[in-house]
């Protein structure tokens, strides 16, 4: 395979285990491309053009493909360069293009069946499938069925070879597409599939969801036309795979019953974890879009001739780079908060992309086009979502660190309702609680609460979205957070949590909370916060020559007492809000670097709700303790 990409650094040189067989002594090596025999190659485009003009069939093939897919403008451009590295671990040849323009979509050249497969290029490239033009093709189902059979037979870590406990409600598909119905309290054991998808504007169609009014009728029959196109396709896929039951949240959870929603959403870990497969609609933004459709022409394969040989090769755009392909970062579903745990918990996921299908289970990932096969990879390329769960059982790094990595990943995802920030990870939290046995506090663990508080936001100047989560929890802010500034230095802890408690809302012990507090003993001080260079998300403490403060969100001056005029600093719902003048704040030290010089801590304001308590408003780092007058105190943060 040959892959062409833009604006990517040259890959490291990889050596082949042995020599590549060539067609014969009469085939002289091109002085520019060496007939793709060298391990690392980084010539400019004009050399390739020159070699083509001198009769090199390999350079001609490369230029034909690049021109056809719009990766090369067709002119001799001095600053365009390509790199070639032989990657024996994938049995491929990878070419990447470098230019000052925007990066283009990678293109792969791979082997096609021919009567004369005797050139050295044919011998070194894999034969890869030509993808069907429709995602409902027989070839696609053959690919899925092959992966499923292998997984059930050979992957003990994926488990669930047969019947499992069924959800409270499932769609019964066994009688055919004209006789779909909702089954309440189905047989105790069975086999079912689950669907992971973006809701879009589904809330505008309550008549097409399960409600208190519709549950009786849906137990009799669910008409095919009443189903969203995506749901019809999920039914089709499950039926093709001989799976008799299907679980779709909006058709199996009563949407206008908050108690039912709380109970059923708390069982997500069981439902997605027990499903034989999870059908993942990665590229659909709503269920109103079909999943099974004609694939975009953009991804279609094209045929090219190696001049002078009569041998043909295929070329097609790749959905993404090798490194991030199976993680599917750029697809709509990857941005959805609920989908994070659905993917992480599932035993097996069938990702439907607009170019192909990608299989993912707890052991490996494989793409329908054959380019991705993580069973052949190593190190960072082989980690599957389940590896993260396994780490919590003590098989890899510490559970506390793994949880923080989970939170970093999840926090950047989108939620229709901010109140779902904790429920959307409650399934994972339930699994981790079974492993850790620790008390769960608004997205953090009592056993590692100090480390859990040391987050900072990456969504600069974001407005505060009011919620009932305690301010010390990452779940109290909307947007992506990171623990990098704390974890990179691994400071030793200086503070001690004396008490911590959260009030649970409803029936899910890992779901919404109505508030919480922690009592902490730590170094405490009062200072004056000064806006830093007019920026709304950074600040400095007056008199400090070191350290910096990252605000949790936009801040504003809040009035604590109408009579005495006392004010403090609090989170603002206005994203444009800025502190225009110095103001009194409070701060605590949580940890220090090993040399004891640089400190990390939290910036606080007085709570406008709980008398005598404080609320978190920012993260401070690299502060010199010697520049501040501090004393050990016990305070409460809400």
Could you characterize the architecture of this molecule?
With 638 residues, the protein is α+β, with helices and mostly antiparallel strands. The protein folds into three domains: 2-127 and 299-317, no CATH class; 141-283 and 331-384, no CATH class; 397-638, no CATH class. Helices cover 21% and strands 27% of the residues. The protein is built from 15 helices and 32 strands. The strands form eight sheets. It has an eight-stranded mixed β-sheet with strand order 8-7-11-10-12-15-16-17, sandwiched between helices. Strands 24-25-26-31-30-29 form a six-stranded antiparallel barrel. Helix 1 (45-53) crosses helix 2 and helix 11 (385-395) packs antiparallel against helix 12 (399-411).
Name a few traits of the molecule.
638 residues, 8-stranded mixed β-sheet, alpha+beta, disordered N terminus, HET-domain-containing protein
Distance between the termini: 57 Å
Q: Runs with pLDDT <50, length 5+?
A: 1-26, 99-103, 321-327, 377-384, 392-396
Q: What is the count of distinct domains?
A: 3
Measured as a percent range, the helix fraction is: 10-25%
What's the overall average pLDDT, rounded? 82
Placed side by side, the strands forming the largest sheet appear as 8-7-11-10-12-15-16-17
Oligomer classification: single chain
Shape label: globular
Strand proportion, as a percent range, falls in 25-35%
- Provide the gyration radius in Å: 29 Å
Q: What structural class do you assign from the helix and strand content? A: alpha+beta
Tell me how many strands there are: 32
Note the main sheet: 8 strands, mixed
Secondary structure tally, helices: 15
Domain Heterokaryon incompatibility: 192-342
Protein name: HET-domain-containing protein
Organism: Microthyrium microscopicum
